[in-house]
Amino acid sequence: MVTFHTNHGDIVIKTFDDKAPETVKNFLDYCREGFYNNTIFHRVINGFMIQGGGFEPGM
């Protein structure tokens, strides 16, 4: 599990290490490196998915 702390509350993400080990490893590496720090979520579909990490405030 990964928790993103945002200015609108926490987002808890469940990873599926057994089904997608390389994808999970890549995602966790990005998290450890701070890639998502100070980025925004630019697309949210309730109950389905969120997208973020490609934009920063002010862009």
TrEMBL record:
PROSITE patterns: CSA_PPIASE_1, CSA_PPIASE_2
InterPro entries: Cyclophilin-like_dom_sf, Cyclophilin-type_PPIase_CS, Cyclophilin-type_PPIase_dom, Cyclophilin_A-like
Record key words, sorted: Isomerase, Rotamase
Residue runs in coiled coils: none
Residue intervals of the PPIase cyclophilin-type domain: 1-59
A Pfam family per the record: Pro_isomerase
EC number assigned by the record: 5.2.1.8
GO BP: protein folding
Keyword Isomerase: yes
Range of residues in the leader sequence: none
GO MF term set: peptidyl-prolyl cis-trans isomerase activity
Keyword Isomerase (UniProt): yes
Enzyme class: isomerase
Name recorded for this polypeptide: peptidylprolyl isomerase
Organism, scientific name: human gut metagenome
